[in-house]
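[audit] Reproducing an earlier prediction to check determinism. Same input, same settings, fresh worker. If the tokens differ from the archived copy the diff job will pick it up downstream; this log only records the rerun itself.
[audit] input (160 residues):
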Amino acid sequence: MARIAYILPALALGLQLFAQGTPAKEGAKPHAESVATPALSANQGINPDELIAVRATPYRPTLQRDPFSAPTDAEQTNKGDLVDDIGVKGMVVSNGKVLAVVTDARGNVRSLPIGYRFRDGELVAINDKSVTFHQWDASSTNTKIFRTVVKTFKREEGKR
């Protein structure tokens, strides 16, 4: 890093000296002097209407999501239920498989096996009194960071 601090000023000085050129010798012909070009005035060469002209840009629709924006809730609505919206009603043992009886936010009742994936989580364990879920952030693809949610069985409404 220290070398660059010495090299850059020396390089800049060398370029300045080179740009000045060598002094003319006594017997040498002088170079033809270049004619300076006049600067453009406000009325020469530039049309002010072209500067403020509005040009149409065609719209090119694509079916690709912007990679820099987070998925919106509208895109996520059809991808399944959230763990928070699930109500656990009980468990069923069928053919040696343990299934959890759950209800979703719309009131639909389903039997789900261990390993069933939700939009923001996964069903990981079923026991006699509760069902255990792993829940992660719905807008993230990282499933390694999760919280454990244990939901106990709820009684059916209207029964005592």
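[audit] rerun output stored. Observation attached for the diff report: The first helix runs from residue 2 to 20.
[audit] end
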